[in-house]
Amino acid sequence: MTQTIAIIGLGNMGGGMAANLVKNGYAVRAFDLSEEALSKAQAAGCTRASSAADATTGADAVVTMLPAGKHVEAVYTGEVFGAAKPGALFLDCSTIDVVTARRVIEAAQDQGFAMVDAPVSGGIAAAAGGTLTFMVGGTDAAFARAQPILSAMGKAVIHAGGAGNGQAAKICNNMLLGATMVATCEAFAMAQKLGLDPQTFYDISSVSSGQSWSMTSYCPLPGVGPATPADNDYQGGFAVALMLKDLKLATQAAQSVDASVPMGNAAEALYQALANAGQGGKDFSSIIKMLG
Ligand code: NAD
């Protein structure tokens, strides 16, 4: 029998994810506060719902892709829990703080529902193309149920452990990404000032111990390495504002467990300065302009 999935949050990411659920044969009930987002989802084959509770009614599973923890908590406790059918599975794919993720999952379990946190790596293009990577927190049984649904929207689905561990993996990864991007940009800027040609420095460092994903897959300089947002005046890609959001979540998580993250803190301060300078919409590799 066709499974029915509710998807709540049809923005840059959720819109593409909803379309991929339809393509994979699910009956999809979609809701967003934005009329434009709802119309796009309808054009992609989803059934429009009039509220989060309406979308949830009769659904076997509920997928959420919302901006932050407060939206996720409000949608689940205010609407989804009350409208879901017994035994429904919940999958929150938003990037939110670990503490809220664990609290909402516990509340869902108290009401008899299974739930996973399943944040993603990959941007808008990966959401549209169905090639996201999902890092999933939850019980073995909840993960087993979530896996086929997430596979319809992604290329990799990895079980990170218990509730909240998907969010923990996501923010630790993105803190590492923010710090390595800053370090890569510093090195390119200093190399140039020391008289090194950027391509020559790339040719050396990309096969030496300074190599990283930020250098060889996402080089922050135009014309060096593979095609990246740097070649398109830092448009598209992963916005400074989203990197800053993730670094703030990392700082919050670090404080909650008394972890020392000086590199993460430094990256956060630098991305905050870039956002304050009005560059929040540019790709995060554009921080090289501030450091150059
Ligand atoms: P977005 O702002 O484009 O979309 C969020 C959508 O949620 C909006 O359409 C908004 O109207 C809707 N919304 C807000 N409150 C709602 C409510 N109460 N009920 C129904 N709909 C509601 O954001 P996005 O870029 O799609 O990101 C979504 C999540 O994915 C965020 O947590 C973000 O950090 C994460 N993420 C984004 C990217 C990216 O590249 N954009 C990459 C990885 C992870």
UniProtKB/TrEMBL annotation:
Catalysed reactions, semicolon-separated: 3-hydroxy-2-methylpropanoate + NAD(+) = 2-methyl-3-oxopropanoate + NADH + H(+)
Residue intervals of the 3-hydroxyisobutyrate dehydrogenase-like NAD-binding domain: 164-291
EC identifiers of the protein: 1.1.1.31
InterPro entries assigned: 3-OH-isobutyrate_DH-rel_CS, 6-PGluconate_DH-like_C_sf, 6PGD_dom2, 6PGDH_NADP-bd, HIBADH, HIBADH-like_NADP-bd, HIBADH-related, NAD(P)-bd_dom_sf
Gene3D superfamilies the record matches: N-(1-d-carboxylethyl)-l-norvaline Dehydrogenase, domain 2 (1.10.1040.10), NAD(P)-binding Rossmann-like Domain (3.40.50.720)
GO BP field: L-valine catabolic process
Entry GO MF terms: 3-hydroxyisobutyrate dehydrogenase activity; NAD binding; NADP binding
Keyword Metal-binding: no
Keyword Oxidoreductase: yes
Keywords assigned: Branched-chain amino acid catabolism, NAD, Oxidoreductase
Signal peptide, first to last residue: none
Pathway assigned to this chain's UniProt record: Amino-acid degradation; L-valine degradation
Catalytic residues identified in the record: K170
Coiled coil feature spans: none
Domain 6-phosphogluconate dehydrogenase NADP-binding: 4-161
Family: Belongs to the HIBADH-related family.
The protein, known as: 3-hydroxyisobutyrate dehydrogenase
